[in-house]
Amino acid sequence: MIFQHFNLVKRSTVLRNVLSGRVGYHPTWKMILGLFPKEDKVKAMNALERVNILDKYDQRSDQLS
């Protein structure tokens, strides 16, 4: 199956989109403030490196080709 829509938040950065998968594991108030633990950020950066887009971590998702 090939997905046509990636369900990304277009105004968010690539890193923020990856981190959004961890929202359910932390208290709501921390997620509202965007306070992700360091280990989540490290995991997200490792995931971006695995798919060769680590250099795009701070780009908005709507700017990806």
TrEMBL record:
- Keyword field: ATP-binding, Nucleotide-binding
**Molecular function in Gene Ontology:** ATP binding
> Any idea what this protein is called?
Phosphonates import ATP-binding protein PhnC
Q: What is the species of this protein? A: human gut metagenome
> Taxonomic lineage of this organism?
unclassified sequences, metagenomes, organismal metagenomes
